[in-house]
Amino acid sequence: MNRILVTGGGGFLGSRLAERLREDGHEVTAARRRDYDLTTMEGTRRLFDDAQPELVYHLAAEVGGIGANRANPGRYWFANLMMGAHVLEQARLNETPKLVIAGTVCAYPKFTPVPFHESELWNGYPEETNAPYGVAKKAVLVGAQAYREQYGTNAIFLLPTNLYGPGDNFDPETSHVIPALIRKMIESPDEVVLWGDGSPTREYLYVDDCVEGLRSAAERYDGPEPVNLGTGVETSIRETAELVAEAVGFAGRIVWDTSMPNGQPRRSLDASRARELFGWSASTTLRDGMAQTVAWYREHSPAAV
User: Fold this and answer.
1) How confident is the model over 121-153, as pLDDT tens digits?
2) How far is residue 46's CA from residue 23's CA, in Å, rounded to a whole number?
3) DSSP 3-state of 69
4) Which strand ranges, in their side-by-side order, compose the sheet holding 155-160?
5) What phi and psi values does residue 269 have, to the nearest 5 degrees?
6) Whole-model pTM?
7) Does residue 133 have an active-site annotation?
8) Which residues contact 14 (CB under 8 A, 6 or more apart)?
9) Per DSSP, what are the bridge partners of residue 30?
10) CATH class label, 3-168+204-234+267-283
11) How high is the mean pLDDT in each 10-residue block of the chain (305 residues)?
12) What is the C-alpha to C-alpha distance for residues 76 and 79, in angstroms, rounded to an integer?
């Protein structure tokens, strides 16, 4: 049994990871923002003092979809940069044996050859709407590599693609594409208006597959290089909308508002490094994962009844 700290432990990914770790018999501290403000060094120090972790998963982030990113560029840059820096510093001061940091696919340049390979991470500037968030996360990668070099901190950095699944954030102001589509199509069965023209592509990773990726990396990977976590399957927003419509039984009209931004043109990851370095690959198809997500939302949301 290990003492494990999960920052962002009340969030979508963090709560699923904490649950899985407890099933394995570990003592888990699932840190939440209301209890520890990781944008301050004092809040982060207090968390490490309380948890005394032997392993840390740093999943805490402030993030949202295109609209939320456009509304909060300064906040997202500051919060994600500070949280990462403070967790790294406390891991160093506490001589924490292992730190697993979750980065973001938003760190990749706007125009990256598909599928995205980790070697392309610095070959351009991120898509403008999520650049402050993506750049902050990339700075944390630099910090992790610098701390490894100077202090011997065993910090690894993973780049998950777009997550979805049961327990996702369905808030219309901050949700990502799949939960946003599910809620829109259930609440407005006659017509939904979607941003852009539907041509951009995304890659979606089922939350429990990501949990297994994090666990596998913690157990088997100790290198300085960032590692993608993804499926390698590229799906257009238009195709995504059609899949969600099928999953929820939506028979209404889909209207594309081309006056709104598309976001990054294409997004799909090369996940070969994860397979090679720690034997992980995703196992849940988008159709199966979508069905489980819709079922969860119908069960837990009053609006879906």
Assistant:
1) 999 999 998 999 999 999 999 999 999 999 999
2) 26
3) helix
4) 27-31, 3-7, 55-58, 98-102, 155-160, 227-229
5) -105, 145
6) 0.93
7) yes
8) 6, 7, 8, 30, 57, 59, 60
9) 6
10) alpha beta
11) 95 97 98 97 98 98 84 96 98 98 95 95 94 97 98 98 94 87 94 94 96 98 98 95 96 94 88 98 96 96 63
12) 5
The active-site residue, picked from 133, 164, 221, 297, is 133
Q: Which two tokens stand for residue 62?
A: 């402030």
Q: What is the pLDDT of residues 199-210, one digit of tens each?
A: 999 999 999 999
Q: What single-letter DSSP state applies at residue 109? A: B
Between β-strands 98-102 and 155-160, what pairing exists: parallel, antiparallel or unpaired? parallel
Length of the chain: 305
Break the chain into its structural domains and give their ranges. Answer: 3-168+204-234+267-283
Q: Residue written as tokens 């209301």?
A: 34
Q: Which whole-number Å values give the CA distances from 145 to 32, 222, 224, in the listed order? A: 26, 12, 6
Give residue for tokens 């993973």: 158
Tokens for 187, please give them. 């609440």
